[in-house]
Amino acid sequence: MEGKILKLSFMESWGIRKMMKKVLIIFAHPARAHSKINNALRAAVENLEGVTINDLYANYPDFLIDVKREQALCENNDVIIFQHPFYWYSTPAIMKEWLDVVLTHGWAYGSKGNALKDKIFMQVITGGGDENTYQKDGGNLFTIGELTSPYQAVANLCSMKWLPPFTVLGIHRGLSDDKISYHKENYRRLIIALRDETLDIDSARQEKYCNSNLDEDIRRV
Amino acid sequence: MEVFLMQLFVFLTAAIIAVPIANKLGLGSVLGYLIAGIVIGPFGLSLVGQVEEVMTFTEFGIVMMLFLVGLELDPKLLWQMRIPILGVGGTQVILSSAVIGTVSLIFFPWQEALSIGLILSLSSTALVLHTLKEKGLMNTTSGRSIFSVLLFQDIAVIPMLALMPLLATMSVNDTSNAEHMIFDINALPGYLHLIVALLAVILIFFTGKFICTPVFRIIAMTKVREIFVAAAIALVIGASLLMDLVGLSEALGAFLAGVVLADSEYRHELESDLEPFKGLLLGIFFISIGASLNLTLIGDRILLIVGLTLGLIVLKGLVLVFTGFVFKMKGKELSLFTIALAQGGEFAFILFQFSRTNGILSNEIIEPLISAVAISMFIAPLLFKAYEKINANKQVEEKEEPISDGIEESGHKVILAGFGRLGTDIGRLLISSGIKPVIIDNDVANIEVLRKFGFKVYYGDITRNDLLKSAGADEAELLIITMSDIDTTIKIVELAKKHYPHLKIVANAADIEGQYKLIELGVSKIRRETFGTSLSMGGDALQALGIEPYQAYRMMRIFSKIDDEMISELFERFKESEESYIYTYQQHMENLEEIIALEMKFDVEGIDKAWTVYNPDK
After folding, report:
1. Global pTM value
2. Which of A47, A166, B407, B444 is most buried per CB count within 10 Å?
3. Better-scored residue on pLDDT, B392 or B500
4. Alpha carbon A134 to chain centroid distance?
5. ipTM of the complex
6. A199: which DSSP letter?
């Protein structure tokens, strides 16, 4: 109840139309200065109306996460995105810490924990290996879908609507500037579609990656 | 003069010989004093005369003891204890008087029986509190119950003194007891008597609350220690004189004065200043009890006196068991409660004396009873010993839980020495973590300011062993030293290492040389005073230059870690020679830059490679 009131007044004060969904991008990269792709992706959405970037390493260099602040941020947004490099088939360490301390019983899950209910959850992953390494017979033995299944389970336990990850793979072979611009534009389109509710959630859920078939999944308005 | 010194010498020597022996035999110091008394008394070596006088004088030790007990109990805690004091204490005194009185009724008329009952219901505050403190049982639940009863008894003496003259059956043969100095309270009518007594109590409160602290502050400023000691003793004497003047118990007056000052910043200073005087006076008091034991009388009427003693202990014991039972004590608690209070007390000597001069009891009755009381006081330490023996076997069964809520001193496990710029923030951190340290500072002006902000800071010179002791060094776990002056720090560390080797030490040093000195003394937790701030400011600077917060934070941490590791090697060089020290220091400074650059590079590369398993380096 309180969250709702806060949300309305916040939105009104910024003059945002009430129809717009609000997007929270939780960003984690321990050495941003060295990250070309993640910085580029972030730059593509950073200044969008209704989008908040929450840089975990910058906000909590000592890993002491402010649980109250993080929970309030989640409550005030409708879409929660984890943007991060795919370290050891998972997130950078601070994101795991975030899950451990922020998603508390009675808030995120449990019989009374429904703060995240019906919010949309999605990962934005940059991976060094190519698409073909993430196969049963590829070097990484498992598909991205299989490797990100723990996050699908997290979303499920918190009654969130899970979307397949937005993936940019093979970046260690080096991506051409064209490729990078292409991913940037897709990321921007997807975030806007999520914000303006023009993404066909049901068909997007069927895709391998959220960015596999954006032209089809985003409704033209 | 020579006679006085001779007597003093005999008393002290007797104590010096007897107490260590008694302690060695595990009998406790009280029994040692008592035995020393018999040995030097008229029935032993006959080395002392005028025992009665000595006893009257040293009774003042009890007054001091109650002042010190009061110092440890602030009014809030006393209020919390009102139920045990009135309930348990009241039940014990009334029941004991009734039972002993009823038994006496077989032999004597009711007036005498009642007086005997009242007098014998009292236990020995001096002996029991001394023993409880010695055995560290003061702050256990049973210790509290026992103390409550003793306190009630001490208060009960006042109405007894007022009531007993009404029981007089014989004509009073001497009227010389009205020898008060300024005026005779008994000359006043009853209601005025009450008002004057009340005013005296209010005066003690007023003095303690509003006059003592500023006076102590002025005295502390002079930094002449003996003046402070003099003020402390004068305070106790003044309070008890005032009480005496209005016909109240001296011990009660001192106790009240103590309670009023329990909150004062000079509490630990007062404690450590009075402690030795109290100990000495009480010791001599116990010796004089031993010396006053009339062995001839006991020898002549051995059966009667043994019977009286046993009867006294058994009757009081039964009442105590019943009382404890009513107030839901059980097991160890109940047994300690019973054996601790089943004896006669020093107030019995005073009251018997009083009843003799007031024509209530005759000498024939008093003499054997006094002997029985004295013997029961001999037996009490033995009972404590037996209790310990029995419980040593089943110790694990139920441990006496020390109470930590009310009495701060014993709840504290940490002593914080120095509450200046450094100490204040440490104190704030500890307090907000639920740890209440005993904070000692010697800057009077600083204490005054901090007290206004609600910090419980005590005045005292922590480089003194007795103050360290009264701050609780025996029970404390940790000593935090935050002195700006390294020589003071060293003094405290040496003192703590010598007398309290169990104490963990956390200390600061102004600079690296101070740190080396403390390393040499074996202190393992040393922080350079400004190092933390330097690091944080360095981190801020790095961030201000655009370095990411996480990178800046890591650089800070790495720098601090390397610096920490460097210290032990630098210390070795420092001991060797100046040249080798300076050389090593410079080497390290050069290396540091390199090491940090490497660490940072490794860090980034390591992370980057971690997720490129199958496409390393393209």
Report:
1. 0.64
2. A166
3. B500
4. 20
5. 0.80
6. B
